[in-house]
TrEMBL record, chain A:
Right handed beta helix domain boundaries: 74-218
Superkingdom of the source species: Bacteria
Source taxonomy: Bacteria, Bacillati, Bacillota, Clostridia, Lutisporales
Cited InterPro entries: Beta_helix (IPR039448), PbH1 (IPR006626), Pectin_lyas_fold (IPR012334), Pectin_lyase_fold/virulence (IPR011050)
Protein name: Parallel beta-helix repeat (Two copies)
From TrEMBL, chain B:
Domain of life the protein comes from: Bacteria
Record organism: Lutispora thermophila DSM 19022
Alphabetical UniProt keywords: Coiled coil
Taxonomic path: Bacteria, Bacillati, Bacillota, Clostridia, Lutisporales
Record's protein name: Uncharacterized protein
Residue ranges that the Swiss-Prot or TrEMBL entry lists as coiled coil: 4-53
């Protein structure tokens, strides 16, 4: 296994196809601007930036910067990707890839698109001005999406697309000022843990099938909806989340069944704190703290829902969510590190 | 958004990507066309799969 130095003048796709590159080799990219779409057609190739100035620029002509079709264990690390017509990194029928520490911006499609693939790690990437930041689609399972920052995308920050996109983990990511949803989590048994979803059009949507878990996340400043559960989602769990200063309901469980909502702090939302819709049934709402959600902290118009031991406070005299939220600042939010699109 | 609408939207987007790329191919340097074709094939398969998904609903 060897380390191969690469310059912007070399055709990386051809290089990988040649006998000079074998599984386990590292392609060490010199700084400079690369006008290429790299198709990686061998397993266990590691493509690593030598410094911060490795830039892939599609000049709004090329489709994707990196294409990983039906390969295994490819690493892409430390690369700046900009101005492609489709996605920054496109993966299909693969597994075990490591997509780390890349900065991707101004894609017409997605920052990273994972199609029909499993067991990939997508860690510490910064993505902005794309459609979706990170999209898992076509039966993508067991992927780990960790500590990424997605901002100012015109679709969703993070998304698992349909019911077959299951068993994925979204952990410690930041989704900021995206036009649609901070996190759209379709499918079963997905985990969202410790994510920060701030100032998105809508916070989180959960739909199709069952058993997903939403723990320790913060959802703030959404406009069109905060945390919506629908399509008879079954056995959903939301615990230890902080849902504050959103324009609509804190949690809107339209027709979910047998969900558990426990230990959440839901405050100063411009509509009710928790709404259990007409067709919701068998949900447990317990030990939540709800403060000054207007008009009510909890509304239950469903059937057989259990509401136990919640702490509810109404607004203080002359207090309203909008007034409180206007002055709301918290150190964590003020220190959000958004991608600086166009800087590279 | 219900699944049907979601899939329809994605189909529209994918069709646009494919069509755009086909139209742009003349501007792509010859040595880069193979990788563009590889990407296009993926998007065509994805489109086909979405259309099948839609047909099931």
């Amino acid at each position: 296994m060897s380390v191969i130095n690469v310059t912007p003048l070399m055709d990386i796709t051809e290089l990988i196809l040649s006998d000079n590159v074998n599984e386990g080799d590292v392609l060490l990219l010199e700084e400079g601007i690369y006008f290429q779409s790299v198709a990686v057609l061998k397993n266990y190739i590691r493509i690593v930036a030598k410094g911060p100035g490795v830039i892939f620029d599609g000049r709004s002509i090329l489709l994707d910067a990196f294409i990983l079709p039906d390969v295994v264990g490819v690493g892409i690390e430390g690369i700046n990707i900009r101005h492609y017509r489709a996605s920054g990194i496109l993966v299909e029928f693969g597994f075990g890839h490591r997509i780390i520490n890349n900065r991707i911006h101004n894609m017409l499609e997605h920052g990273v698109e994972i199609v029909s693939s499993r067991d990939n790690l997508i860690w510490r990437n910064e993505i902005s001005y794309c459609y979706d930041g990170i999209l898992l689609i076509g039966g993508s399972t067991n992927n780990r999406v960790v500590e990424n920052v997605v901002s100012r995308c015109y679709g969703d920050g993070f998304e698992s697309f349909l019911s077959q996109d299951s068993n994925n983990g979204f952990i410690s990511n930041k989704s900021i000022r995206n036009r649609n949803n901070g996190l759209e989590m379709y499918g079963s048994n997905n985990l969202a843990f410790n994510n920060l979803l701030i100032d998105n059009g809508l916070g989180v949507i959960v739909s199709q099938e069952r058993d997903s878990v939403f723990i320790g996340n913060k959802v703030k400043g959404t406009i069109f909806g905060t945390h919506i559960i629908f399509e008879e989602y079954t056995n959903y769990f939301a615990g230890g989340n902080n849902v504050v200063c959103n324009r609509e309901e804190g949690i809107e469980n339209n027709n979910g069944q047998f969900g558990v909502f426990i230990d959440n702090e839901i405050s100063y939302n411009g509509d009710s704190g928790i709404l259990l819709g007409e067709e919701s049934t068998g949900n447990l709402v317990m030990n939540n703290k709800l403060v000054c959600n207007v008009p009510e902290n909890i509304i239950d118009i469903g059937s057989n829902n259990n509401i136990i031991n919640n702490i509810e406070k109404t607004c203080e005299l002359c207090e309203s969510p909008s007034a409180v939220c206007e002055g709301y600042s918290d150190e964590e939010d003020n220190n959000i590190h958004e991608s600086k699109a166009g800087v590279n | 958004m219900d699944a049907k609408m979601k899939i329809e939207n994605e189909i529209t987007r994918k069709k646009k990507v494919i069509e755009d790329c086909e139209n742009m191919m003349d501007r792509v340097p010859k040595h880069l066309r193979t990788s563009q074709e590889t990407a296009l094939e993926i998007y065509r398969r994805e489109l086909e799969s979405l259309e099948q998904e839609l047909a099931k609903l």
